[in-house]
Amino acid sequence: MDYRGDTISTGGDEMVTGTRCHETSFRDDVVSPSSSDPVLESSYSRFEVKPNSPGPQMKKQLGLVAAISLIAGTIIGSGIFLTPNDIVGRVGSGAMALIVWTFCGFITLCGSLSYAELGTALTESGGEYTYLRYAFGRLPAFLYCWSSTVVVRPVSGGIILLTFARYVSDPFYDGDCTAPSFSMKGIALAALLLITVVGCLDSKWSAHISSIMLVIKFCALGLLILLGIVSLSRGHYGQLETGFQNTTVKVGSIAFAFYDALWAYDGWNNANYVSGELKDPKILIYALVLAVPLVTVCYVLVNVAYMSILTTQVFLKSEAIAVDAVHNVLGNAGLVIMPLLVAASCFGAANSTLFAGSRVSAASAKHGDLPRILGLIHSSLGTPLPAFIFQALMVAFYIVAVDLESLILFYSFIAWLFYGSSMVILMLLRRREPDLPRLFKVPLPLPIIMLLFSIFLVVAPFYQHPTKSSISLGFMILSIPLYFIFASRRWLRQLSGYFTRASDWTVRMTQHVFAVS
After folding, report:
1. I want to staple 104 with a disulfide (CB 3.0 to 4.6 A). Which of 261, 264, 273, 382 is the partner?
2. Beta bridge partners of 25
3. Nearest CA to 130 among 113, 148, 112?
4. For residue 20, what are the domain limits?
């Protein structure tokens, strides 16, 4: 399938798109329908959803503030309030933990600048899915969209929303008492419903929520940093006094410390998922360059505050480190103020996560790698309503049925496998298509550093936890047969007329009920 300028050529059919200004080419192993096979021809025409086909499109209405809010709003979620003591426990010392946080900020900046080049060269929404399909074809793109849609995004959203529920309920329970599990899950589901309704109605509303919550997040971080300054001025240095004492040299432990810190940084690539909705592609560059360094500085300063306010014993055993830190300085007032600020932070991060995740599902469906229904766009609202609802249902499943904390390794393994793949794509495009229009070119050493670090994070956990890492790898391998069953067009010859009619009926009903097309 050739994708040139204003038309898409698919074996004789042309459709006006007007969304590209340069020549690109999507590899595709689709078997074209023949006129002698009416069942296949009907199936192909109905199931194949061409990218950027005429009809409702997502609106280009997101500006710089919205993009920064989406990036920083997703990065600053639950991680900075959950993982700092876990990282110190893994590396053995506060000084080494600060190095981990700083280096992870640098790695995030390397990745974000590399994604800025990819996102301004390949401007279609979809992020890694778009890049993988463009460079390597449908199978790698399918593996990504399958992993992202079924595990990565829903697990991330579920963890964040359960953290939100925990902090919302904290002010109502004294001492060591916590809300029952069913209560926290109910709060998480209620928040999920609100995010879904807003996200389905208007992209701008979702962006406004991210912007408002971002201000609250920086208030929470600012409060912690201010209290840390007060503690240091009083001569309280906590773990900072011990320096590198007890630092571990185990490769596996260090790798998992990076996993925990990078979980707190995750979301830096979210603007790439909505690059097709930005008013100007240059906005992507400015947003990434501004958001990531700002978050990195805040994270390092917040960790310094934690270490100076809390004693080593309290720091390592704390289950709500931000609340304990504020409570240590402000007394009982901290037990109310901080939980609400953290809850708002988590709500904003969950909103941004679902917003970006629905765009990956919609982009995948438009290319036929996920059910066509997920690629439908609301005719008047211009939002990927079915994809958003599907993402919400997957998040709800993980909230109700799974212990999400145990899936962070699974999430991180898959995420960094594809981050590394994107770095390979960037370097391949530099070699294959040097004349491809690029608004920004990242210095080549940065994606190389990002690639090497990605390889480390994918390989090193096999040394420390081979079983869990093997399960993550097994999931990727087992998804390959699904590609040939559900996505490869060769199988359309074997689909029954009943399946075709049932699928078409489902699409028509969805179009009628939700006013999408």
Report:
1. 261
2. 2
3. 148
4. 2-514
**What does the radius of gyration of the chain's CA atoms come to, in whole angstroms?**
23
> How many whole angstroms separate alpha carbon 112 and alpha carbon 378?
31
Q: How many residues does the chain have?
A: 517
Give me the CATH number covering residue 321.
1.20.1740.10
CB contact set of 350 (below 8 Å; sequence gap of 6+): 77, 157, 160, 161, 164, 191, 192, 195
pLDDT in tens, 396-442: 998 887 665 556 667 777 888 889 999 999 999 999 888 888 888 89
Q: In the chain, what's the furthest Cα-to-Cα distance?
A: 84
The tokens for 515 are: 């006013």
Q: Whole-angstrom Cα distance, residue 94 to residue 474?
A: 35
Task: Please give the model's pTM, rounded to 2 decimal places.
Answer: 0.72
Orientation of helix 181-201 relative to helix 153-169, angle to 10°: 120
Using the structure block, give the residue that is written with the tokens 């066509």: 372
CA-to-CA separations, 213 to 52, 103, 303, 351, in angstroms, rounded: 32, 26, 21, 10
20-32: pLDDT as tens digits:
333 344 444 433 3
Q: Tell me the C-alpha distance between 106 and 155, whole Å.
A: 25
Helix locations, 378-465, DSSP H: 385-401, 408-432, 445-459, 461-464
